[in-house]
Design a protein that fits this description.
Blueprint: H1 6-14, H2 18-40, H3 43-59, H4 70-88, H5 107-110, H6 124-141, H7 146-157, H8 162-169, H9 173-194
Length: 202
């Protein structure tokens, strides 16, 4: 990969440089996939979101405002496309079997289940723990409405600021706070009722 900035790669893409656009894809697609997957809990639909996001970027290269951070723009499109997929789904999610884990359940509420996939040396134990946490997240988060789920993912998994989440979802910061608060309440209740053995009441 080159050392060109996102803006420089976009400028080259506007001129029809497909290699530059391919580099943007290589840099960004994994993060977009993770956002979509955390919202949808469906690998195939998350891949569809990735394709949608980058198709929109390619089609809108000439209109893109370089004053707006590319990562924020991609995050906004990914969240909204994931919500669209969620709402268009006609069948219920397959219920996931419970998976016992030896991990801090609060990690589901305060840290990213996808954090282990963001770089660093491969650690089999960490990968297994991530898979277990991911399975529980998928099950518990299925109780959340799409806007709450997307707000929670962007705020607590992606670490976006409230203003960025509001921009991505097209709502006010107070609405973001409400969505996140309700999501946390629902997740805590579901965690307590479905995995009481993981709750430390001491």
């Amino acid at each position: 990969m080159s050392g060109d900035s996102d803006g420089a790669l976009l400028a080259r893409s506007r001129d029809g440089d497909t290699d530059a656009f391919r580099e943007i894809f290589e840099r960004k697609h994994r993060r977009i996939y993770l956002i979509a997957y955390q919202v949808l809990s469906d690998a195939a639909q998350a891949e569809d979101v990735v394709q949608d996001v980058f198709l929109q970027l390619w089609q809108r290269c000439e209109q893109y405002d370089e004053a707006f951070p590319l990562d924020a723009w991609l995050r906004r499109i990914a969240a909204n496309r994931a919500i669209d997929h969620w709402r268009s789904r006609q069948v219920e999610r397959r219920h996931r079997a419970e998976t016992p884990v030896d991990a801090d359940p609060e990690a589901l509420l305060d840290a990213s289940p996808a954090a282990a996939a963001r770089g660093g040396a491969f650690d089999p134990e960490a990968q297994l723990e991530w898979q277990q946490l991911q399975a529980i997240w998928d099950e518990l988060a299925a109780d959340l409405p799409p806007q709450q789920r997307a707000a929670f993912v962007l705020r607590h998994i992606e670490g976006a600021a409230p203003a960025e989440v509001a921009e991505a979802l097209g709502c006010s910061r107070s609405t973001v706070r409400s969505h996140v608060s309700e999501a946390r309440r629902t997740l805590r209740h579901a965690l307590k009722s479905r995995y009481p053995e993981l709750i430390d009441d001491s």
